[in-house]
Structure formats: C-alpha cells, structure tokens
C-alpha cells in the first residue's frame, strides 16, 4: 500500500474528515435538494472523497452524473489532437450546463506538471474553446440558477508542490477549511458575518482601490458601481476572500498600474515565476516573467478578453499562511490580494468574456497597503478595523 492510501482507499477505511468535508459541501456550500441534477467531476485518485460526496448527495434525494476522467486524457488530446479536436466543444456539455442545478468539482492530481511539455498555443486553443461554456456557467451562477463548488483532495503530487509530506499536507488542507472543528459550518457562518463587514464597507459607494507593495506594485482599480461578494465556503472550499470585478467601462478603463507578483502563478499545472504585469485602461499592455514567459504571453493572447481584468480580490483566510503553489489556497492567504485576467463574474457587474480565468497572488504582509478612496484599510497584511478578519492567534 503506497502512502496515498493513508487517506483511505474504500468506504470502510475512509478518513472521517472526508465525510465531514462532503457534508459541508453538500449541505452548506451547495445546499443540494431532492430532485436536483448534480454534476460531480474530477480525477480517479479522488475516489475516497467522491464516494463520500456521492453517498451524501444520494441520501439527499438528488440525481448525480459522475464524470471521472484521468488527466492523461487531456494530455493525450493536447499532444495528439488536430486543430478541430482542440477547438471542439461537445454539444452534450452545452446542454448540460444549461440544465444542471449543482456542479461539484474535485481537484485531485497525480502529476501537477503533466502538461508542462505541451505547446502553450495548443493549450490556449483548447481553453478558448470552452469560452461559450464558461459564459453560460457564470451567467447561470450569477442568477442563482446554478450552484457550484470546487474543492481539493490532497495527493502526494500537491503535497510535493507545497513542500510537505502527505500527512502534513492533509492536515494543512483540512485545517484551512476548519474541518478540525466539531462544527465547521458554524465557523464558516461566523466568518461570513465577519467578512460581510468588509463587503458592506466596500459596497458603500466606494470608487477606487489602490494596492501598493514594497517590491514596486502600485495598482489602482476603479470599482465604482461594482458589487463586492463575500466568499465564505459557498463556491470554493476552503474559502476566505471578498472579491469584485473592476469597472472596465469607467473613464480610466478600470485598471491602471503595475503588479509584481509575490508567488508563482500556476495555471493548468504550468508554473510561471516572477510575473510582472503592466495595465493601462483595464488591459495588460506589458507582461514578463523570469520563468515560462512564453506560456504567460500565449495564455494572455488566447482570445480578446484574456488581457482584460475579470476579478480583483482580498484574501482573508488567516488559517492559510504559506504559498503551496495551488491557487485554491494561495489566493485565500490572509493579507494578500489577487487579480484575475480573463473572464469576470457577472454578479459583480463585470462581464469580461474569455476562456481564461487566471488568478495571480500578491503578498501584502511585508510592507503592503490597501487604500480605498484614500483611506488606509490594510497595512502589512492586517486590516485596520479590528472587527474585520484578523490573524487566528489574535
């Protein structure tokens, strides 16, 4: 038995934290109801969590379609597929995104670097092909017609990226979601109330947010008329952020300045280091990186919307303190902000359309600030208002 099986390889050996995670996602995050159509998808290595989720959903009286494909299938398509195959979007997928009530995605990888040898332009074509799917998905989610949640099943591959043993990584993952507590849902409801104070402040007629760091980041984002969203475990799990989309219709174009990112920007398993983006009127006009710059440029050039900004957010999960090279966790680090190039979320008021949505994280904990309409709200990764989210040991 290899070390991956320490988390359980069947119903009888399943780690009890997986059942707790399944209960949170099904009952709280997506609130699955009898008769709903639920899509459950991910990789085979996540089977212990799939089993827990499937059992919970069935007991709720919902219908499940289980889509379980190894990442090697995508690698084969990107390596050997012709142009038509790369650009193909199955009609069945388009029908499904119009009718499903809940989508639960599971990230569980055996090799996080499996696509690093693929020509970036081919990855860009495959990503751009999903643009119509993403547009409908986000529009239905914004209307409340579709609930979705993405989570992670800890694997040795992800643990290696995080420079941890598998058991250490499992503990990190479950603690980030407060699954070590007797009642994690109660904790997330408490977090939701606390984060709502941040969202309420930002939604109270605020117009401009400025991010600055000691390494040269100086970014100004127009958020006038946009909606800030409180993320407390409903769509991502674990969670912990407040986000919006920039007002790309503003006279200034919405986003201007420079961001020098603190952590590696990871997308589709490809790690891009030392990313620096310069924005003018809401679009990336210059981009460079110390590693995999060619991949960065080709992702930004995949379609018209890829160089525009879809999201700006503040990380508020102070239970996550270190970079793990996994965006699900890194973008939530308390005392950071992240910006996503590509598709925006319509519920924020941003309707940028793209097959890309790439979150990149900037650390504010060492000399960083956030100002809103000239008022300092964060210094060195800590909110200036005591009643807003604060480090766990305070």
Task: Lay out the secondary structure.
Elements: H1 16-29, E1 37-42, H2 47-59, E2 63-68, H3 71-80, H4 83-86, H5 91-99, E3 102-107, H6 120-129, H7 131-142, E4 147-152, H8 156-161, H9 166-176, H10 184-202, E5 208-212, E6 218-222, E7 229-231, E8 236-237, E9 241-244, E10 255-260, E11 265-267, E12 270-272, E13 276-280, E14 283-288, H11 293-300, E15 309-315, H12 327-330, E16 336-342, E17 357-363, E18 369-372, E19 375-379, E20 382-383
Parallel strand pairs: 1-2, 1-3, 3-4, 4-8
Antiparallel strand pairs: 5-6, 5-18, 6-10, 7-9, 9-15, 10-13, 11-12, 13-14, 15-16, 16-17, 18-19, 19-20
Question: What can you see in these coordinates?
Answer:
- The protein is of the alpha+beta class.
- It has helices spanning 16-29, 47-59, 71-80, 83-86, 91-99, 120-129, 131-142, 156-161, 166-176, 184-202, 293-300, 327-330, and strands at 37-42, 63-68, 102-107, 147-152, 208-212, 218-222, 229-231, 236-237, 241-244, 255-260, 265-267, 270-272, 276-280, 283-288, 309-315, 336-342, 357-363, 369-372, 375-379, 382-383.
- Strands 14-13-10-6-5-18-19-20 form an eight-stranded antiparallel β-sheet. Strands 2-1-3-4-8 form a five-stranded parallel β-sheet, with helices on one face.
- Strand 13 and strand 14 (283-288) form a beta hairpin.
- Helix 1 crosses helix 2.
